[in-house]
Amino acid sequence: MREFLLIDWVLTTALVWLLIGLIGVVFQHNFTLISRVLFPLGAAFGLVLAVLALNGIDGSPQVLVLPIGLPDLPFHLRLDALSSFFLFLLGATAAGISIYAAGYIRKGEGTAPGLQCLLYHLFLTSMAFVMLADDGYAFMVAWETMALSSFFLVTSEHRHAEIRRAGYLYLLVAHVGAVGILLSFGVMAGSAGDYTFDAMRDFSTVGIWPTIAFLLALFGFGAKAGLLPLHVWLPEAHPAAPSPVSAMMSGVMLKTAIYGLLRVSFDLLHAQLWWWGALLLLLGLASAIFGAIFSTVQTDMKRLLAYSSIENIGLIFVGFGLTLIFKSFAMPQLAALALVATLYHCLNHAFFKSLLFLCTGSVLHATRERNLGKLGGLIHRMPWVTWLALVGVLASAGLPPLNGFVSEWLLLQSFLFTSGLPQGYLNMLLPLVAGAIALIAALAGFAMVKFFGVVFLGQPREEKLSQAHDAGRLERIGLLWLGIGCLLLGLLPNVVITLLDPVTRLLVGSGLSFAASSHGWWLLAPISEDRASYSPAIFLGSIVVLMPLVYWVVNRSFRRRLKRVPPWDCGFPLQTSRMQDTAEGFGQPIRRIFSPFFKRTREHPSPFDTQPRYRSLVEDPFWYWLYLPIARIVGYGTRIIAFLQQGRIAIYLLYSFVTLLCLLVWTRG
Amino acid sequence: MNFYALFAQLLELVIALIMAPILNGWVNQCRAWLQNRSAPPLLQTYYTLSKLFHKDVLLAHNASSLFRAAPYLIFSCMALASAIVPTLSTELIFSPAADAIALVGLFALARVFIALAGMDVGTSFGSLGSRREMLIGFLAEPALLMVFFTVSLIAQSTSLATIVETLAHRDFVIYPSLAFAGVAFTMVSLAENARVPIDNPTTHLELTMVHEAMILEYSGRHLALIEWAASLKLFAYSCLGIALFFPFGIPSAADPAALAVAAAILVVKLALGGFVMALIETLSAKMRIFRVPEFLGTAFLLAVLAMLVHLLLETGQ
After folding, report:
1. Separation between Cα atoms, residue A489 and residue A370, nearest integer Å
2. What sign for the dihedral angle of Cα A426, A429, A433, A434?
């Protein structure tokens, strides 16, 4: 009997999740057990997984062969720095989301709680297995389990036709993508037919084949991550799913695709070509700009966040592409900087986007409303949710001293110090990308001000909002966990960079920990202090000291009173809450500036209408440019093939006869 | 970190707090002279601030705690920003804490909070102003960052102290890229400080307001803090322009004699800069809000051009 290694502990944790799910479905009528025991227990094991994975990051790789699956095809599992980092992301985020879900699930909302408990924990287990898998077979099994369990979670409210449609779209894109991944594994395994990752590492494909494998993997994982133009499922599926599930999908599941592509491009393939990186960078940049512009014009709060996820995934791919470029030109130090920015942003996005999705969940429960145009003024009714949403909003807008800023700062730094690449054009174009990233960050700020301002500030736009209630105790714990995570990730960048060191050493052969640790925990200086430095602790510290100081001085020296009066608004007498800016109004400048990007339909009222209506619909142009033409071609093709189906037995007998004849001729000849 | 660095830092902060309203008054005075009006006193901004501080605060019924906290936060952000920009010395204790990118982040933080405060009471003009402010912000921020990137590429550093040292103590070489970047920076500062081609600080017509529309609901000490923060922002931007494009005379050591000389030089430069700003404001007319994207788009393109000029002509040979 061998000793119990870290990987065994990780595996046990993943299986405990599965067990929790099974208990939930067995005792599915015991709602108290499910919501008060099982989900919090799942959260606790999320924490356990995070702690275990933290230990795994700087440990040596461990392998395990599980004798399950088909007779000749056992599951190979492996725990190395890369998978540990992503398992940490999964565990830490799941801890917050699960405890929130414990307070969030209700009886009579969509799928029964017992079944939801099973699907949710199966989803968690399958994601853990995706990150542990060490052969193509186990990976695909876990990948498909993940896709299917999340599909059933998305279609939890399956009685609505549009939710079924969203789920179908999600399933379709997920499976088209899975085909790409499967083919990529096939190319990398070569003719030997051994699907373990070890065999793929040893087998060095030559010529065009590594590129084909990379492009197939990019297609497959890009579909899961929501990279342009395979992003269309995201804004459909995220609003359809219950909020903890949207949080899990956006925060963690999108990152499994990043994990997969990192695994394929750095670990399984040996030599990287620079134009792979350039391709990734371009696709990422296009996604980020597209997502940022579209998130500013949305009127549904979860769609807004979904487009913002596309933007963030785009930024992650930009960093990824830059890493590939540096790696291919053998510049390990810069590659490490870009990779740290990429992975850091993965972690940050997992925290702040889950936080924001969970906040929309609380708003949804309190008001039954997803439409931004019917919300408003919730800061008075839901202070907990509001202030924690503010943390998420600031992080998502990339503002110091929160976490979103640190990764964007690192990304910009890695673009600014690109000089010295052997490719002249790249040398010149890469610093310009930094300008595009600045534009994206500023647009994200616009979208986030719109989101927060319209939902939480101002006056309530509907009567019923005065009945809104704040999040429950368990929900608050979940939100608080993620909010504190955003703050800590922002304040302690050096701790995170030191943590990431083994990962960057594994993937690009260099790390930043020396530069990070040489200045103390409070000063982030990735290259040297002269070149660039940033200290979030001093930043926050000065504001925290200055604000009360100013307050004290001002209120001490001028003791003036504070009177509550009706709002002034330049003295205009008649003011109703309907006169506030709506979500459409707030997005109007962007619609106007970027009008070529949008597919817009507008209905104007005519002067003779008894009930004038104004409608403006902004749609994704990719539907019209790409998806509908493809759907039309597929439909046309099926109509041609359907000609074979004549519905008379004689015809089918004729087909068999003709086939037989052809085969006979072919074997004879 | 030594004693002089701490001293220089505190001195810089105090000078910023004191000088900012005076700079504002100086620009107004110059503008009045250029427009053949009799000018308000140089210390007019102080009188206004003092009047506001001595008034009661009238707060709308549904104003939230975010609305009340925002003035203090915005003021702190701007004070911190003017402490980060090297004006008297490049040896400051705050200089490693934030580089040029973090400074832009700090301005963005203040902008987001003032925009949220504008939406808080839920009046039509407040949210109109917030929307326009965010529009100007998202157009101006990339242009400003591109200007910073260009000078960072010249100095091989994004740290403001290093940039100023490199630019101030170099041999006298004319960088064509800096000329483009300087024009772009001027355009951005006009937009960011709500000056004339974009916004009118003295407007009384609600529909054309941007900055003023957001702060319509503020009164008393809250309004005073916001006005002071606005003048601090103008001061910080002016000092930033000086530090990036006319850094001659900013010492690298922080002994009292050098600081005194630097302070004198700073006052002269600020007076000149304020006059130029008043001149620009007098010579141009306010543009419609949807001409702003063109104006700031031009600024962005100029900044891109600056970077390209730097990469094409000034490196590598």
Report:
1. 30
2. positive
What is the average per-residue pLDDT within B4-8?
81
User: A73 exposed, middle or buried (CB, 10 Å; 0-12, 13-18, 19+)?
Assistant: middle
| CB-CB neighbors (< 8 A) of A553 in chain B | none
B13 CB within 8 Å of a chain A CB = no
Per-residue model confidence as pLDDT tens digits over A104-125: 888 777 778 888 899 999 999 9
Sequence-distant contacts of A507-511: CB under 8 A, at least 24 apart:
A507/A82, A507/A262, A507/A266, A507/A267, A507/A323, A507/A339, A508/A266, A508/A323, A508/A326, A508/A327, A508/A332, A508/A335, A508/A336, A508/A339, A509/A332, A510/A332, A510/A333, A510/A335, A510/A336, A511/A336
For A64-82, how does the pLDDT look when each residue is reduced to its tens digit (9 = 90+)? Answer: 888 887 777 888 899 999 9
Please name the member of A379, A398, A588 whose beta carbon is closest to the beta carbon of B64: A379
CB contact under 8 A, B57 and A561: yes
Q: Is B212 an interface residue toward A (CB < 8 Å)?
A: no
In chain B, where the domains are located = 3-313
Across the interface, do A446 and B162 touch by the CB < 8 Å criterion?
no
Q: Give the orientation angle of helix A473-491 with respect to helix A332-367, to 10 degrees.
A: 160
With a CB cutoff of 8 Å and minimum separation 6, the contacts of A526 are: A337, A340, A410, A413, A497, A512, A515, A516, A532
Torsion of CA A183, A188, A193, A195, to 10 degrees: -90
pLDDT(B143) > 90: yes
Strands (E), A472-586: 562-565
> d(Cα B1, Cα B36) in Å, to the nearest integer?
50
**How many other CB atoms are found less than 10 A from the CB of residue A551?**
18
Which of A399, A569, A593 minimises the CB distance to B109?
A399
Closest CA to A524 of A514, A515, A534: A534
Q: Quick check: A619 and A591 in contact, CB under 8 A?
A: no
Let me know: does B14 contact B258? Beta carbons within 8 Å: no
Selection from B180, B117, B164 nearest residue B310 by Cα: B180
Interface contact flag, B312 A428, Cβ < 8 Å: yes
* B72/chain A closest Cα distance in angstroms: 6
pLDDT value, residue B317: 41
User: And the tokens for B163?
Assistant: 């940039």
Give the distance, in angstroms, between the CA of residue B81 and the centroid of all CA atoms in the same chain. 9
SS3 B46: helix
Tell me the DSSP string of A148-217. Answer: HHHHHHHGGGTTSHHHHHHHHHHHHHHHHHHHHHHHHHHHHHGGG---BHHHHHHS---TTHHHHHHHHH
CA nearest to A449, candidates A304, A336, A628, A564 = A304
User: Do residues A382 and A363 make contact, with C-beta atoms less than 8 angstroms apart?
Assistant: yes
Rounded to an integer, the average pLDDT of B106-129 is 91
Of A83-92, A442-451, B104-113, B304-313, where does mean pLDDT reach its minimum?
A: B304-313
The interface pTM score, or ipTM, of the predicted complex is 0.93
Report d(CA A521, CA A518) in Å as an integer. Answer: 9
The residue with tokens 């269309």 is A232
Structure tokens at A168: 């179908």
Q: Which residues contact A301 (CB under 8 A, 6 or more apart)?
A: A360, A363, A370, A371, A372, A375, A451, A455
CA atoms within 13 A on the CB side of B217: 36
First CA to last CA distance, chain B:
38
pLDDT computed for residue A516 by the predictor? 61
Q: Between A583-593 and A424-456, two packed helices, what is the crossing angle to 10 degrees?
A: 160
Q: Which two tokens stand for residue B247?
A: 């850094």
Q: Which pair of tokens denotes residue A205?
A: 């494909």
Whether the model pTM is above 0.95:
no
Question: For strand B57-60 and strand A562-565, is the pairing parallel, antiparallel, or unpaired?
Answer: parallel
> Using the 8-state DSSP alphabet, how is residue B259 labeled?
H
Strands (E), A208-254: none
Task: Please state the φ and ψ torsions of residue A400, each to the nearest 5 degrees.
Answer: -70, 155
